[in-house]
Structure formats: C-alpha cells, structure tokens
Amino acid sequence: MLELFGTSVNLAPIWLTLEVAAITTVVLLLLGTPLAWWMAKMRSSNKVLLEALVALPLVLPPTVLGFYLLIVFNPTGPVTEFLRFFGFEGQLTFSKTGLVIGSVFYSLPFAVQPLMHAFEAIPQRLLDAAATMRAGFLDRFFTIVVPLSQRGFLVSATLAFAHTVGEFGVVLMVGGNIPGQTRMVSIDIFDHVESLEYDQAHILSAMMLIFSLCVLMLVYGLNRRFGVKVG
Amino acid sequence: MLELFGTSVNLAPIWLTLEVAAITTVVLLLLGTPLAWWMAKMRSSNKVLLEALVALPLVLPPTVLGFYLLIVFNPTGPVTEFLRFFGFEGQLTFSKTGLVIGSVFYSLPFAVQPLMHAFEAIPQRLLDAAATMRAGFLDRFFTIVVPLSQRGFLVSATLAFAHTVGEFGVVLMVGGNIPGQTRMVSIDIFDHVESLEYDQAHILSAMMLIFSLCVLMLVYGLNRRFGVKVG
Amino acid sequence: DTANIAVAANFTKTIEEIGQLFEKETGHQVKFSFGPTGKLYAQIKNGAPFDAFFGADEKRLLKTAEDGIGIEKSYFVYAQGQIALYSANYPVAEHALEVLKEAKFNHLAIANPKTAPYGERAVAYLQKVGLYDGVKAKLVNGESIAHAFQYVVTNNAEIGFVALSQLVDPQSPVYQKGQYWIVPQSEYKPINQGAILTQRGANNAAATAFMEFVKTPKAIEIIQRYGYNVQ
Amino acid sequence: MILGNLRLQLGHFQLDSGEFALPLQGVTVLFGRSGSGKSTLLRAISGLDKQTEGQLRVNGEVWQNGKHSLPTPERHIGFVFQDAALFPHMSVKQNLQYGLKRLPKAERMAAEADFNAIVMRVGIADKLDRGVNFLSGGERQRVAIARALLMRPQLLCMDEPLSALDWRSKSELLHLIEEVVAEYRIPMLYITHAPAEVERLADRVVFMKDGRIDTIETLQEALARPDSPLFDDQGAVSVLQGQPLPSEEGLHPIRLGADTLWLSEGMDTQREQVRARILARDVSISLSEPQDLSIINHLQCTILELLPSGEQRLLVRLQMQDGQKLFAEVTRRSAERLQLTAGRTVHALIKAVALTE
Amino acid sequence: MILGNLRLQLGHFQLDSGEFALPLQGVTVLFGRSGSGKSTLLRAISGLDKQTEGQLRVNGEVWQNGKHSLPTPERHIGFVFQDAALFPHMSVKQNLQYGLKRLPKAERMAAEADFNAIVMRVGIADKLDRGVNFLSGGERQRVAIARALLMRPQLLCMDEPLSALDWRSKSELLHLIEEVVAEYRIPMLYITHAPAEVERLADRVVFMKDGRIDTIETLQEALARPDSPLFDDQGAVSVLQGQPLPSEEGLHPIRLGADTLWLSEGMDTQREQVRARILARDVSISLSEPQDLSIINHLQCTILELLPSGEQRLLVRLQMQDGQKLFAEVTRRSAERLQLTAGRTVHALIKAVALTE
Ligand SMILES: Nc1ncnc2c1ncn2[C@@H]1O[C@H](COP(=O)(O)OP(=O)(O)OP(=O)(O)O)[C@@H](O)[C@H]1O
Ligand SMILES: Nc1ncnc2c1ncn2[C@@H]1O[C@H](COP(=O)(O)OP(=O)(O)OP(=O)(O)O)[C@@H](O)[C@H]1O
Ligand SMILES: [Mg+2]
Ligand SMILES: [Mg+2]
User: Fold this and answer.
1) Residue numbers in chain B where pLDDT is lower than 70
2) ipTM score here?
3) Considering CB atoms only, which of C42, C60, C156 is closest to B93?
4) Is D230 domain-assigned?
C-alpha cells in the first residue's frame, strides 16, 4: 500500500503487471525472433497471410480474442491435453501462465513487426560475407544479425512491454481477476471505478498514462535517430 | 434478422458498425491528412512527443480511455460547452457523434502513421519541381502529394475502418449501447456472451474474424507490392 | 485455507468488507475476483479456479448447477438488490413518477436489461406503471449497474435507475448529493443475488465457511448497510 | 545581373556566399568539391529553401530581402534536377503541360505555340504518351529540360543534370544542352563535377569552397593556370574557340585566325563559335614541320613557358598565331632532347581524332 | 579446374550457364552488360544462393550436385563485394579477425602469422582500431581485401570491387589487386564493367549474355577483334606485355623483344611481366623515323590490315617486331595521304606520357 495524494494505492497489481509484462516480453522475444526472421526471409505470397494473422490482434476486439482463448485453453480442451501429454501440470488459464499466454497473443504484432523490419533491413551481403568467412547459420545469427538489430529488439521489447501493461480485455477474460495472482493494473483501475473509488482509479490511470507516454517517446526517439521502423 | 446455421442474427449492429466505421474513416482522413503532413515535415524533437501522443491509444487500455472520454464529453463539461458556442446541439455521448469521436481517438494511430510514412516517402524534389512550375502549396498538395500517396491513403483508410469495426472498450463506455443507435457488433458479441447466447456470439465473431483477416491481407498485400509502410 | 470466490461486480465493496471480517474471525483467507456475471460464468465453465460464485442473478448461478459445476444444494440467495431512481437535479425524491412521465430529461440510464437484472427489473417496472413507452427513446444502457451509475455520475445522463448500494456508500461520489427514490420492492420481482458453491470448493474449508458466514447476522448487517435487502 | 549575398544554415552546414554579382547571360557553372554547398546555393537562389536569409536581386527584382523571400512559383525560373524529378504519376505530355496550365493566359498561348518546336528540338516528340517510368535516363532528362524550357524561364538552373547518365547519353545530352543554350539564350546556372562539361558550356565559373564562393572567373582565366581545379586525372586541358567551316573530305575544319584545326567529329556549322577541347597529353611538339606523319594538325606556336607537371613531365604553354593558348605535355627527356625553351617557335601536333568539339 | 553447369531461377531471371571449364589459376574476369547474370553466376559458384541447381566441381571437390550443395562456409573461398560489406558493428581489426577465429587451429596459426604482413601489404596497418564507418571508400575495400586474403581462400571472388570508388582510389586499388594477384597467386574470379580493369588484370574473359556464358576467351583473343566488347568510348585498345627494365632518367622502359617502350609512370621492376595499355587513338603512324619530335616511342611495325572505324576513321592493325599486335587510329585522309596499305612497314609513334602500366 502506498499513500499518494491522501489516497492509498494497492501496489500488488502494479508489481504483478510489471512481472507479467516482463515475462511476456521475454517470451515474445524468444518466440517472436524466429518467427520474425522467418517472415523477414519469406518471399512467397503466404507471407501476406502470415503478416495478417500476426497483426490480427490489432483489429480484433480483445474481449472476443479473450473469449476464444478461454475456450481453447480450457483445462479439458485439446491444447491442455496435448501439453499434459508432455508432462505439463496445472492449468493454462486463470494463472500467471494464462495472463502471459493471453498477453503474448495480444502483443504479438508489437513484438514481431519491429523485429521483422529490423531483420529485413540487414543487408544480405553482410550475411553472405560472414558465410564466406566460415560462419554457419546460428553463428551468423548471433554475431551479425543480433548486434545489428539491437534497436529493433529494444523497440520490440519496449512496445511489447508497454502494450502488455495496458492490456485489459484479454487479461480479464483469461486471467480471472484473482487478487495477487491475476489482477493487473488495468483491471484494478476498472474495479476501482466499479466500486466507486474514483480517486484510486485516477491515480492509477495517470501513472499508466505517464508510463506509456515515456515508453512511446523512447521508442519514437530511437526510431527517429536510428531509423528503426515501429509498428 | 438473418437466419444462419439455425441461429437468428440481428443485423442492425452490423449496419451500425459499418456506418460508424465509415464515418470515422472519413473524419480520420480529413483530420489525419493535415496532421500527418505536418508531422512528416517536422524536424524538431517535438515530433517525438507528437508521435508518442498519436500512438498512445495503441498502448492505453481502451476502457480507461473510454472512462475519461465519458468524463470529458459530459454535457455540462467544457468540451461540450465549447462546441455549443459554435452552434452544436445535442450531446456527445450516447450518440453516433460520440461513437465517432471515441473511435477517432482510438483509431488515430492507424490512420496517421501510414499517411505520415507515405508523405515522408515523397521526394522533396518533386515538390520543388512543381514549385518552379508555378504551383502553389495547395496546388502541389493535390496534384503531387495526394496522387503519389494513394496507397498510403488506402492503407490508412482500411486500417482505420477495420480497427473501428473491432473497437470495443471506448464504444462500450461512451456509446450507451442503445439498440439501433449505438450498439455496435463488438458490444453485441459481448452481450451475447453475457446472456449465454454463445451461438450468436460465435457467428458474429467468425464474421468479424474473417472480415479483419481479409482487410489485413489487403493491406499487407499492398504493402508488399507497393512498399507502403503499415502501422 | 484460502478460497477464490467469483463475485458480481456490483457487490465489490460489500463483499470486501464481509471478507475482512470473515478473515479476522475465522483465520481463513478469501480472494475475490470481480466481473460481470456472464463473464464469470464463462470463466467457471472453462475451468476457472473459483470455489464459490456470488452472482448478480439466479439464472446464471443455477446454470452452473445444471452444468455440473455448481453444487445445487449449496445455493442460496445472499442479497436482494434494491433499485433506486437517482438524479442530481430532478425532484425524484418526491415526484419520481411525474418526472418520469414528463420525461424532460435527455437520457435515462439503466443497466443493460439483457445482461443485468437491475436493468431488466427497471424496464419491467416502467412497463408495469405504463411509462416505458414514454422513456424508451431516452434509455441508455450501461453494460453493468456500475456502468449505468457512471453515466449518471458523469452527468452524461441526468437521471438513472441505479442500485441503492451505490447511493448509500459514504465513499460514493454522489453520497448525500442529489435526490433518489427507492422503488418499492413490492413493485418488482426481487433481484435475487444467488450464491453457489462449486465442486471445486466443496472440500475447501474456507469456501464452505464463507458461505455460512454470509448468512450470519454480522454479515447481514453489512449487506443491509450497503443498501441490499436480505430475506 | 544577379546580385546577392545569401546565408542558409542546414544542420551543421552553413552556406554563406558572401557578396556576389553574376551577369544574367550565358552559362555560369558552379564548381567545387562534394559538400561545398553548390546545390545549397542554387536552392537558395531558387527560393526552394525557406530558411534562406540575406539579399538577392535578379534583374532589379527583389527575390530575397532579409528573411522575406519571394515564393519560388513567382520567380519564373526553370529547374532541372539530377534525377529529372519527373512526376511519376503522369505521362510525358502531362509532365510537360503541368507548368503550362499554370502560366498566365498570354504566356500560356505563346508557350503552347512553342510546344511542338521544343518537343522536336529536345527529341521526345514520339514519346509524349509514354509513362515516365518507361523512359531511359537520357530520355527522362530530355523531358525535364523540355519541361523547364516550356515555362520560358528568365533563369534556368541545372543541378548535375548529366551525372546519373551513362557516357553515351551524357555526350548526347551535353550536345543538346549546348544547342539549347545557343538557341534559346536563356541565362543558365549549371552545377557539375565534370571538367569536360565546364569546358564545353561555361562562360564563367563560380568556384565554391566550404559553403562560400571562393572566386568567380571566366572560363579562360580558370583554364590558364596549370593547377586549375578543372584539370582531372587526364591532366591539363586547353579549350580553343574558332569558327566552324564547311566540312571537307569528311573532316570538319575550324578557323583559328590564320590556322585551321581539323576535327573528325561533326559539329553545327550554323554556329558562330565552336569550342575544341584538347588534352595536353594529346599534343606533341615538333621543331620542324613534320612529313610522312598520320597526324594532320600542325599548328605553329611560340613557347610561352615550361611548367613542371609531375616528376618526369613538363607542361609547355604555347601561344598560337591567333593568340589563343595551348598546353602540351612532354617528358623532361624530350624537352631536353629538343631543347625547348621559352620564346622558341615550334609546331604543335594534334591528332585530328583526338579532338572532341 | 572449375568444371560446372549451373542453373538458378531468380524471379523472372534465369541463369543457365551451360557447361563451362575454367583453369583454377590467374584472373578470370566475368564481363557482360548489366543484368546479364554475372553476379548471379558468381553467387551460384560461391554457394550463396540456396536455389542453385546443376553441377560444380572445383579442384576435384564436388560443390554442387543437382540440388545438393556444399554450404558456403565449407567451400573455403574469399569474397569481396562492391560495397566491401564490412561488419558495421566491429572495428577494422574485429572485421579482419572474424574469419580467423573460425579457421581450424593449424590454419589459424598460419593465418595469424601472416596477419601483420597482409595488413601492411594492403596498407591498413594504422587503421586497425578504427570503426569501419570512419573509413573512406578506398580504405573500406582495402579492409575487405585483407579480410578475404587472411582466410587463405582457394578461390577469391570479387564482384565489382572498384566500381563505387572515385578515380584516384580506383587506380590505387587496381594497383593493389594486381600486386596481390602476382604475390599470393590465388586464383580469382573478378566481375567488372570497366574495360581498363579487364585489360590490367584478366588472363581470360568470360563473356556473359542473357544469363548464359557466351564465350570464354583469353585476353589477347578478346582484344584482337576491332569490335571487341572491351572497347568503350575511348575506342580500340591494345595491351602489350613486356619485361620491365631498370628506370633511366626518370623514364621506365619495358623490353618488347628487340624494341623498348618508354613509360613515364613507374612500375614494379620485380615482376617478370608487365602490361602497357595503349589507346589506338594515342598511336600515330609515320612513314619515316621522325626527328625533332617530342614523341619518344617509335616502334617499327608492319601493317596487317586497315579496318573501318566510324565514318571517317580507320583502325590500323600493326604487328610489332616481337609479334605483338598494336592498333592505331588514323583519319581516312591521313591514310590516303600516307598511302597506308597492308604489308607496308611504318613507325608507330606513341607519346610516352600516354601510357599507363
Ligand atoms: N537538409 C539538410 N540538412 C542538413 N544538412 C544538409 C542538408 N542538405 C544538405 N546538407 C549538408 O550541406 C552540405 C552541402 O550540401 P550540398 O548538397 O549543397 O553540397 P554540393 O556542393 O551540392 O555537393 P554535391 O557535389 O555532393 O552535390 C553537405 O555537407 C550536406 O551534408
Ligand atoms: N533476388 C532476385 N530476385 C529476382 N530477380 C533477381 C534477383 N537478383 C537478381 N535478379 C535479376 O537477375 C538479373 C541478373 O542480375 P545480376 O545481378 O546477376 O546481373 P549482373 O550481370 O551482375 O548485373 P550488374 O552488372 O548490374 O551487376 C537482373 O535482371 C536482376 O534483376
Ligand atoms: Mg549537389
Ligand atoms: Mg552484378
């Protein structure tokens, strides 16, 4: 609990949000990097379909997305069964895992698009040159691609993080709003509004607004200065 | 009413959604074009702040945005008073006007960013050449800039339209869910879920999913083929 | 023990107060997840880890029993919501029916009659007293009773049917401001808010204890203080 | 006259021309290293950069006064850019007509009357209906030149119009520009890096350095010094002016005072004056009038001076009988063997084929 | 030997080399118009394009067999790209060491021992700690060449390594590459558009056309025809090979059989053979041995044939006393005046300064 302008603010949802956003960002970078690389190198017209699929969360209502994730990740559903088969225990939804999964889907375009653009901007010749100097694929990836797409990774990570922080619909559906476990800031703001605690809602909203603005300015600053494409 | 797979679907929210999305798109193009032009020509570091502000709806929870729009747009609030001064009658909330204004805020980045990129890609020399051929500013804008950013306008318009169609939080908060007036598809889906009418929800969601996918593929197809940057 | 309990959003403050008392007296822990009743139902149906479900109506609670998730014999009505007509400027305390009949206001806020019992009862009452057709065009639907209340609080609707609990809470932004009129309970079918234990909660000592605790006079006192009736 | 003193700050680069005066006739070439501010100065003169400050009067009209500047559309100039800057969404014809439509009525009528003549002159009459993206680089520049000419500008600016072209298009277009200059007599400001273009076109050269105007010289002055910036890896160059004579036996003579210089390449005999560009290394020296030699041009000259050029070579400055100067490059060894000294009369041998008009 | 037959489809472009065999020694130049598939062939040979199909054996090792191809890292080649392709996030030294670290131990030790020698040779010893973005174009290419040499490749590929440089860096680097070729004796595949580079470096020329190999000729064969694709706007060119002799009085003689050719530019006298490139238009013909003339080189030749070249010019093919062929360009008028006919003995006059090694 924190006292701010005479109003006590429960910090647990903030920490949880930051934690989930951090984990989501890591997961997104781990999954998004190969996906973005693959997309960057694709030439076929499937690429258009894949790009559209990745971008889908940008235009779908989050509650709709959340509702279907809820159905797909149902503990008796096929996805969970499949994972059980590999020794997975526990449940995908209504836990931090659920929050992370939901956020990963929701923030996917924000992570994949800047990475893809960064990868596309790496001149093929540099990779060719490395290949003639006896560097294999992974060697080239880590010694040439990664250092040269630093800014792409940074933009990707900050956008994914910020977007997860601002996430509401999916998280509410998939997470279940359990205090300390799945209640994130955006839901908390809403609970405050519901229970007529407008002061707390205002304070949390202001914090979120300032945070988002800072993150975006960072991203666009990098973008201007280093020519990383965003979004 | 439409019978589909043995389930009756109310079409009114669909028509309303398309109408609001269309109006929003027009408004966004009208407002977004000068804004995007101004931003494309800006060199100062304010540009970063402006870009961040325009992108804010991408990372803020829409319900939070909606809640504050509700406060700002109230009929005795300064915004409405200001509009009254110019002869505006009626109310911003609970009307198509409100839906459009809310959607304009929410879809702003989707309209402005592709336009800005399209404008930035127009070689200054073409405008200079036109100036030496006695074309004034507006003349140049309509005879050179607009035709050359056609694809940018198309991407801008389709993304703004699709995003408005998929809009939920803001519209829910500001609209008042009045059947035939402000009940949009995304809210309708939500209501069906709430009242356990899952069949209708599934049908509407599927329609929306397919629609969004088509729009995005169109956009990315254009993007690939004509090099218009998206998002 | 710790119990996770899903609670309809309108009951947020009340149950938090009961929960604190409960934790102090029994040493058990309770965690509340708030949300719209329909969404909570969808979550429970898809495996949400809730030990008990305090809804805003009876229908969706009993449906869980039908689905084999809720334990039918644990079902009881823990509170009855009371509808109040509130306005900041109209003399509803004395002349509620006249105000409704004249219908000089622009907007009358209610909760969505399709998804929220408060809204449904309000509409039923208006129909019963023959005023529905007169105000039909002015109805705006909040997604929940809290949302309807936001419309009134933010001045977007001049008048609205809200929950008595939202008016008598000392933290409420309209506490002792404006006027309200409690619709006599005899005029509408009681808004029975039902609670049910889930299969998951059957073996949870905290959950079962809490179900009983809500029936104790101490709890009832709190419930009544927040403006609900208890049978 | 163009009278001016312009300043313009672009990022870290500062243009500060200093006071300058240029006659509003013939071709003025802006010459200087990359980044010396040639394009920036030309853009400042054209009013294309809004931040320009200073003074500029052209033909008595005020184009720039402090921060106040006459908008480009009202300056009545033509501009040809390095990459032509054609409007990609218009056909060739539409590109040409873009400016026409914006001329006042009277001028428009006159310009439309010229349309066919100019289009023929520039050699794009058969390409009017093409999309500009289907033109070669050379054709694009032709359209750009026609487009600028059609506006009947009082000043024609060209910023490296040939530098993006291959050598064949370059030489064709250089020829075209030369003819346009002679025919339409529009004063021209021309930027180039190529000494060959300067030697062919320039009446005067504005040398730029670090954002300022260093010197303004006539072409003859600029070519007189052996260390002229106009000399590149091919070494020193002389430009001789003469009157074209009717061709004989497939050769094209030029009269230089009493002498005749034979060119193997054709030229426009309608013109009063033509220029021949001669590399110093293509000029040999003979003490006597040589016989039995495939070299046709033997011009009698007087040695003015011997200038060292590199380690083992000398640049010999010769004066021809009509007073024009000619450089010859010889090895020290030859110079010693032939005992070349200032004042001696010699024969300059120039292979006819080595000349380009 | 390189034995191959490679196919590669890129969009609408189809490479189909046809069977070819190239000795794995000396410099093989790929020459052809833009878009003829030179780069594509070189990339196919290097294994940089995964879709390559066909056959390729290099020194007996199978590099490509049908769709199966040996990965580039295992082909042990070096590659120098047009724009150097230095890693921008590394210093010069790190760029040079990138490949070294990936060599097997024994080779690495040997390469590290060569490090200083190569770095000195290429002239970048004082730039090792620089960031590569602070290098000039010429310096970048030097680093790229050193980087490739350090890998001790069995084949060195260069795709237009000089085309992005200014003329001064071009000539310095051409010199360097020539020396590297002579010194390290690494077989080289070299792409260029510039005839001058072909004439300086090539042992044989692969002419490409529309995605196929048109012909493979030795340099002498390629230069023998008057319509050789290697001749550009400067016209026909001859390349004479000779032994360098010690310089005298600042001039640099080359022995061509019994004759001596004097160059004013220095060359590496350690080398067994050097080449002199002579433009036909720089060669004049005299019937008698001329006196009093600043032209030093007078070579006695026999006229082999007279070939028309343009409207008013003739190309005279001469045979020198040591059997090498030399082109001279003269006007028809001169040819008639001097009565030049095949079989006649004449003197070819070449200004010393006009030679470039
Ligand atoms: N818009 C700009 N913002 C910042 N710096 C600029 C801008 N335009 C040009 N410059 C800088 O101004 C300097 C002069 O540029 P300018 O184009 O006038 O040179 P130039 O003499 O025309 O060179 P070049 O021969 O390469 O065309 C350069 O250092 C360039 O980097
Ligand atoms: N990745 C690619 N996809 C499709 N077409 C390609 C690709 N790379 C090259 N091409 C096409 O293949 C043809 C041959 O290209 P290539 O680069 O081999 O020519 P080149 O002879 O090296 O030309 P240049 O002299 O201009 O370098 C060109 O028409 C080019 O457009
Ligand atoms: Mg310039
Ligand atoms: Mg190539």
Assistant:
1) 1-6, 223-231
2) 0.78
3) C156
4) no
